[in-house]
Each structure stands twice: as C-alpha cells, then as structure tokens.
Amino acid sequence: MSDRDDDDNKDKLRSAEWFGRQDSYGFIYRSWMKNQGHTADMFQGKPVIGICNTWSELTPCNGHLRMLADHVRRGVYAAGGFPLEFPVTSLGESNMRPTTMLFRNLVSMDVEASIRSNPLDGVVLLVGCDKTTPASLMGAASVDLPTILVSGGPMLSGRWKGRQIGSGTDVIRFKEAVRAGEMSVDEFMSAEAAMSRSAGSCMTMGTASTMASLCEGLGIALPENGAIPAVDARRQALAFEAGRRAVAMVREKQRMSDVLTRAAFLNAVRLNAALGGSTNAVVHLLALAGRLGVQFTLDDFDAAGRDIPCLANLMPSGKYLMEDFFHAGGVPAVLAEISDRLDLSATTVTGRTLGAVIGGAEVHDRDVIFPLDTPFKPAGGIAVLRGNLAPDGAVIKPSAATENLMVHRGRALVFDGPDDLKARIEDPDLDVDETTVLVLRNCGPKGYPGMAEIGNLPIPRVMLEKGVLDMVRISDARMSGTAYGTVVLHVAPEAAAGGPLALVETGDMIELDVPGRRLHLDIAEDELERRRARLAPFVSPYGRGWERLYVEHVQQADTGADLDFLVGGSGDYVPRVSH
Ligand code: FES
Ligand code: MG
After folding, report:
1. 206 lines ligand 1 (CB under 6 A)
2. Does a structural domain hold residue 180?
3. Measured between alpha carbons, how far is 324 from 342 in angstroms, rounded to an integer?
C-alpha cells in the first residue's frame, strides 16, 4: 500500500515521496508543478502545506475564502513552507437542498482523499458555513496530518430600522410576524439586504459560529477564530498566523490526534454550554470523535455540560451578535470565565496549552458575557433525554426553550413528514391547544434523508392567533443553530429506522421532563408491540447515487450520523504510484 518506509525516514517529509525522488516519478511531480511558475527550491525539502478550501460562490458564507487563502499562503511562505491551495466540495446552508447534512459525510470523503493522495505535509482547513467545518475536520482527522483550522468569520451585525437583526433567528421571527399579520411582505423583503451586509457566515450563535468557536475549545484553531468578524483585518492576520503555525506543526510533528483528545472534546462541550451553542454541535463532535477513535459519547455531552450555565447573551438564546461578542472578549474570555471547569493542560495548535492560550483573556462587556456566578441563563448545555420514545437518546437545548414547558404532559399531534406538516399546519380547524405536543417524524438521517433542520416546526396558525409562541415539539430532525423553542430533536432511533417515534398516534399522551432527562410515551408496552407488528418497513425512494449509499450506511444521530464505513481513520500513508 505504501511506498514509504517509516522507520528509515523518521525526519523525512511526506512530500519528499513526491518531490524528493531522482526517478521519472520525481521528474513528473516536479516538472508539472513548474508549469505554475514554481522553482524547484520553492517546494523541494520544504514543508508542503495544503490549503483545503471550501470556497464557493454557491456558499455565500465562504465567498471570501480565496482572499483569506492568500493570507494563509503568506504565512506559510514566511515560515519557510510551500503552500498549495486546493478546492473541495462546498456546502452552503442557504442554497443547498434538501439539506447540507446529506452531504457532510460526502465532503469528508472528498477532504480525506484530497489530502492523502497528494504531496502534503500539513493542512490548513478553510471553512465557514455550518457543515464545512465538521466535514473538513472529519476528513482531515481520518488522515491525521498536522492540521489547523481557519474559519471565515461571521458577517457584520445585521441592522434594520434602527435595530440589530440576526441571521436566521430574525428570519424566523419575521416569518412568524408575517403569518400573524404584524409585518407586511414589503417590510419582510426590505430586511433581506440589511441582514446580510458583509462577507462571512451567520452572525448569530448558530451552527457556523458555534463550530468556529468550539474549534478554539478543541484547540484545533487559533485563539479568536470564533468571533473576529469576517471583514476585520485581524481575521486576515489570523489566517497569516495559521499558515505560519502549520509549517511549525509539521516540524514539531504535531498531529491532529495530538490535539483532539478526549480532554479537548470535553472542553468543547463545556464551552458549548457556556455559549448556548447549537444542538448541531452534538452530531458533529460525535462524528469527529468517531474518526479519531476518541472515547466520547452522547452522554458525555450531557454530563460535561450539565453544570455549566449559559454566559453568552447571544442570539438565538439572547440578544447580541457575534460582532458584539468579539468586542466583549470573544471565546478566549468565555474560556477564561469557565477555566476552573476546563482541562487547561489540553494541547492546542499554538503549541501551547489551552491554559496558556487563555491566560490573559478578559471580559470587556458584562452585558454580553456574564460571570459564571451570575450567569445569563442558569441552564446551559444540551440535555440528553431518554425513555421509551427515545431509547438511544434525544436532545434539547434548555437555554433556547421555555421554562414552564420543561416539565410537560400533553396530547400528541402527529405529522408523518414534512409534506403532511405543510398540508395541515395552517388548517384553521386543526385539533390543537397550547398543551398539545407536536410530533414530526420521518425526518431523521435515513428518513428525510439527511436529517433536515425542520425540528422547530412552526406553531400552528390557530395557536399563533391566540398568542401562543412556543409549544413542545418532538422529532427525529435537527434544528438550525439559529432557531429556538422547546424543541426535542435527534430522537434515536429515528422513525425510518424503526424507532418508537414511528409508533406514536395522535391522541397519545407524551411526558417531557427535562430536569429528569426523560421522554416518555404513556402507552402500555403490549399496545406498542401491537403497533410495531403493524408497522410497514421504511422504503427509501432513492435507488441510486449518493443518496442510496447514504441511506444504506448512515448511522443514527446518537453516534453522529456518520457512515458506518467512514468511522475511524486510515492515517497518512503514501499511496502507491500512479503509472
Ligand atoms: Fe452559512 Fe448560516 S447560512 S453560516
Ligand atoms: Mg445554520
């Protein structure tokens, strides 16, 4: 499989297997590189740093990443390395259908193959929009070269009619306001340009900002990676520094797996709680840990984050945006605030420990970042629920939920999928009241397919008209990191995998007990068995292509929804020659 003898070549660069050869292969590798104007001394014997770029004009959040790649490139040159930028498939939340999550694992394969098959010694991952971060990390982890991540950064704060508006979060608010007749369609459309006014990703603490921030907690990105605005010159300086560090990491032989340890994952979970971060972090961190063989489970999410309150007053849990967060001290300040709950000895890509990295960090605005002893919201973290309705678990984000619904018993109203939901949710005669529990199924990894972000299903029109703004909702779907509500997500196993969610009938009583971590369907066991016997098996409509491979191999949300055959890694072996 490999042309490299590791024992004899401990200090030899991986790229020397290409550029250091005296044979016809070496001729080919070098000669073709020279057609781009590179001289041999630029790349021979130098750490070759791949700049793995998820830039795409179809991913607006990543539209500025080629510019940022130039700053990485400068840093690599400044440190005596040789940078090579390459594209991988990009995933843009705003445009892609049916959901980017269907393609996260596909992109991870692209990233893994692109890195391993090429003359690379180290990698800088350039990411931004939600799934580009986990997809790139997962693929790179399965190769495990020295790797550092750079995010594109959040957009500037949205501003409309004299107030701040946040990506995603205010789209949901505006949509509900239009439905309730409180906002005109003209006003609705005038907010579009005001919301997305600069390069960058969603500027709420949605999934993109959550993942970019957690990368600081994981130690896989430089300090400040999470919050520097996309268009702030300090973002370019961070990219420059990442290029420089990537070269040093190759020389220091600091692999991804040296950084992404169990301690790093637990630190990230604690940080996520303090940030009121996205529920999507659950499936992404679990899948990433799976690639690295790190012992880290859904229950760690609950246990490690449970005693950490939400400190960050950021949308969707609070009112501020990423630009405010950056000026308030950003992720290093939050990490410093919870430092006695962290493993400060964890290694980071800076070459220093997490403790050393956050050493001098301070909070500059106490209305944005609250102190640990008087937090913004008492319940941070992500609660993991279990019970006969979710034997393998389900999640809820208490900081985005309604306090008085956290313990609730109500009658189920079941929607069989997105089409059924769409057909009935506006029905003026829908049999529903404020205690009803809305259940949506067939929206999990296999069912949708791709586990779409539709778990925060809209409040029925009849309830909106009564002024009801939140109801308990349960599904096997995900929810956008910018969304909010008393929403139970990621029910596992999903309905399409034969989970008990498939057996619920309208009128059944459901009990939610978030403090008790319980989700219970109040139906006798023998009745459930009768229903199970009648249940028709799920048949995917996808007979070919990626969708078929995905549905056949995707695992459930409780382990991160990776494909079964992608779990783990294959290392950085040098594949055999091509001719
Ligand atoms: Fe790209 Fe939100 S749509 S980060
Ligand atoms: Mg999102």
Report:
1. yes
2. no
3. 24
Question: Could you tell me the CATH number of the domain that includes residue 110?
Answer: 3.40.50.2300
Same domain, 441 and 521: yes
Residues of the chain with pLDDT under 70: 1-10
Using the mean position of ligand 2's atoms as its centre, give its distance from the Cα of residue 59 in Å: 12
Burial 141-159 (b: 16+ CB within 10 A, else e): bbbbbbbbbbbbbbbbbbe
Nearest of 424, 445, 444 to residue 554 by alpha carbon? 445
Q: Are residues 408 and 353 in the same domain?
A: no
């800088």: which residue's tokens?
124
Q: Pocket of ligand 1, candidates 94, 278, 321: which has the most ligand atoms within 8 Å of its Cβ, to mutate?
A: 94
DSSP string covering 414-435: EE-SHHHHHHHTT-TT----TT
To test the pocket of ligand 1, the residue of 101, 201, 205 to mutate (highest count of ligand atoms within 8 Å of its CB) is 201
255 with 117, same domain: the answer is yes
Looking at residue 125, its pLDDT comes to 99
Those residues whose C-beta lies under 8 Å from the C-beta of residue 321, and which sit 6 or more positions away, are 154, 157, 158, 164, 166, 203, 204, 314, 315
Q: Which two three-digit tokens encode residue 534?
A: 């009648």
- Is residue 144 in contact with ligand 1, taking CB distance under 6 Å? no
- Give tens-digit pLDDT for 378-416: 888 899 999 999 999 999 999 889 999 999 999 999 999
| Residue 243 located in a structural domain | yes
User: Does a structural domain hold residue 29?
Assistant: no
Structural domain harbouring 487: 383-539
Indicate whether 390 and 521 sit together in one domain. Answer: yes
Is residue 31 assigned to a domain? no
Amino acid at 42: M
Query: Residue 10: what pLDDT?
Result: 65
Residue 491, CA atoms < 13 Å, CB-side half-sphere: 33
Report which ligand 1 atom has the smallest distance to the Cα of 62. 1
CATH code at 511? 3.50.30.80
Q: Of ligand 1's atoms, which has the minimum distance to the CA of residue 128?
A: 4
Question: Per the confidence metrics, is the pTM higher than 0.95?
Answer: yes
CA distance 419 to 391: 26
Cβ atoms of 389 and 504 within 8 Å: the answer is yes
CA distance to 166, 235, 325, 331, per residue, from 368 (Å): 15, 21, 6, 12
**Among 135, 167, 114, which residue's Cα sits nearest to residue 288?**
135
Q: Is 161 left (phi over 0), alpha (psi -120 to 50) or beta?
A: left
Please state, in angstroms and rounded to a whole number, the distance separating the CA atoms of residues 328 and 313. Answer: 11
Question: Do residues 409 and 329 both lie within one domain?
Answer: no
The minimum-distance atom of ligand 1 relative to the CA of 92 is 1
Same domain, 247 and 324: yes
Q: Is the CB of 201 under 6 A from ligand 1?
A: yes
Q: DSSP character for 89? A: -
Atom of ligand 1 nearest to the CA of 168: 2
Q: CA-CA distance, 209 to 157, in Å (whole number)?
A: 13
- pLDDT in the model for residue 77: 98
Q: Do 120 and 222 have their domain in common?
A: yes
Per the structure, the count of domains in the chain is 2
- Contacting residues for 532 by C-beta, under 8 A, at least 6 apart: 503
